[in-house]
Amino acid sequence: MRESSGDRIFNIINITVLTLIGLVTLFPLYYVFVVSFATPQEFVEKNGFILFPTEWTLAAYKYLLNTSAFIKSIGVSTFLATVGTALSLVVTAGMAFGLSRKRLRGRKMMLMLILFTILFHPGIIPQYVLVRDLGLINSIWSLILPVLTSGWYIILMKSFFDSIPIELEEAAKMDGCNDLGVFFRIVLPLSLPAMVAFGLFYAVAYWNTFFNAILYINDFDKVPLQVVLRNMLIDSDTSTGGAAAVEMVSDQQIPTQTIKMAAVVLSTLPILLVYPFLQKHFSKGVMLGSIKE
């Protein structure tokens, strides 16, 4: 089919508008990246507006990686993203597998209770009282156990398990597998796309832990990366991370703005590096439950 003049005009306008939107969206990310590598002299001379540094430097990154508060926060966030994600996947997949078995007693009642948690949230104060009574205040586990699983993810993963033919389970049991054997040897290998997709969702959520850390963590050595980054971005005088940035300016003449941008880059880089390796499975996993083969 030949394109009409109206179709060509529409395509040109559409491509132009989408290109402009893409540039507007990507420019803040690009600006953060280039400023983090700018030299102090160029940053001061250009009043902070740098499109492309004439000289690149790693001074801000070297400083951050030599700051104990920043390094400790990276360790906390890494622990949350690895241990928290692993535990969340085990709990979510195990519960979803059990609910996908129609012979489970009380299955409908459990599904209704899970749906209730999606529709209604207890609020901050009851959740804080629960964490306090469990003795988790100022513990790293207060950032994992209250958000260990998600009712929405359980329902989605259950729908994926429902699409696995029951004949596979029956054949495995004829070969001597029990329910745990069916789960680990049959169901989980077939559910790799779903596990990768939910694993990435959980990892991003744990890596970006912020609000719960402010509520439950009092020791600055136990706060995750996002809290340190927030302190640096909002007020360089209100926290250890911010005070370190000010000290750096006075000692080595590195602008606090450059250090803040480097911190933003370091906080987003791990997730950006992990995603390309999971993209193949992730693209399949996000479609789970929508199409049955």
Automatic annotation (TrEMBL):
TM annotation in the entry: 12-33, 74-97, 109-128, 140-161, 182-207, 258-278
GO cellular-component term (any): plasma membrane
Record membrane topology: Multi-pass membrane protein
All copies of domain ABC transmembrane type-1, residue ranges: 74-278
Pfam short name (any one): BPD_transp_1
Broad class of the protein's primary localization: membrane
Source superkingdom: Bacteria
Entry-linked PROSITE patterns: ABC_TM1
Similarity remark: Belongs to the binding-protein-dependent transport system permease family.
Protein name per its UniProtKB record: ABC transporter permease
